[in-house]
Specification:
Elements (H helix, E strand, L loop, with lengths): L14 E5 L2 H11 L1 E7 L6 E6 L2 E6 L5 H14 L4 E10 L9 E8 L4 H6 L5 E3 L2 H13 L4 E8 L11 H5 L4 E3 L2 H10 L3 E11 L8 H6 L2 H11 L4
Parallel strand pairs: 1-4, 1-5, 5-10, 6-8, 8-9
Antiparallel strand pairs: 2-3, 3-4, 5-9, 6-7, 6-10
Helix pairs in contact: 2-6, 4-8
């Protein structure tokens, strides 16, 4: 146990599905898993462990932003010996070719955040996701007939920017933006673990379309099913 996670070590599976929203974690667990057990509710950051097609899986929320996902993923990798985390979440689109409800698979995450430097002095601004896990996700997407867009992702520290400057994302060929993947991938890197990120587009900065909060919790079924089907194949 840690100060942020009351689960016992054997109550967390080796593979974790990690949405940001605690209510999305609850929805995924109650909709898709069998024999579920709520193993953490400290700060209402729900974690559930159960079985998907007879494979033990944990679904745990990360909260919003890199500091929050940084805490929970660090402890999962270090204190709970988790091998793989697959983030599932929402993102915004900068380009007309990427529309709301499209499914994104992050190949690499770019960030102008100081997270990695402050954490251990690393000065890089991009990190790759797990190639092995991404290959499984792509294979499962093909089997499930789910179209995915493989691309770079911009991971931002700030949602509400007074200075509207998208040049960092554009210069690094990032058509979408979210707020957690860089910290997750960094923690996976320092512990030599695996992390991937599947996203659903919830906002378009081109068309100004948005998905409401209820839809964000319940309507991302393709992403959820793809993550679960991939998680049970991860070794």
């Amino acid at each position: 146990m840690t100060e942020h996670n009351e689960a016992k070590k054997n109550e967390i599976a080796k593979t974790v599905i990690m949405p940001g929203d605690p209510l999305r974690a609850k929805y995924i667990a109650e909709t898709y898993l069998k024999d579920i057990k709520l193993v953490n509710e400290v700060r209402n950051m729900y974690a559930y462990t159960g079985f998907y097609k007879d494979v033990k899986i944990t679904v745990m929320a990360s909260g919003m932003g890199m500091p929050s996902v940084g805490i929970y993923s660090y402890e999962l990798f270090k204190d709970y010996d988790v091998d793989t985390i697959i983030r599932v979440g929402s993102c915004g689109s900068y380009v007309k070719e990427v529309n709301i409800f499209d499914v994104i698979l992050a190949t690499k995450t770019y960030s102008d955040s100081a997270y990695a430097y402050v954490q251990n002095g690393s000065r890089y601004n991009n990190i790759e996701s797990s190639v092995a896990v991404n290959n499984i996700i792509k294979e499962k997407a093909n089997e499930l007939n789910i179209k995915i867009n493989e691309c770079n992702v911009y991971c931002s520290d700030v949602m509400y920017k007074d200075i509207k400057d998208d040049s960092f994302a554009i210069n690094n060929n990032c058509p979408v933006v979210e707020m957690e993947s860089f910290a997750l991938f960094h923690n996976a890197k320092i512990f030599n673990k695996k992390a991937s990120c599947i996203l659903t587009v919830s906002d378009s900065f081109v068309t100004l379309e948005k998905i409401n909060s209820e839809e964000r919790q319940h309507s991302f079924h393709k992403m959820m099913e793809l993550a679960l089907e991939s998680a049970i194949m991860v070794k």
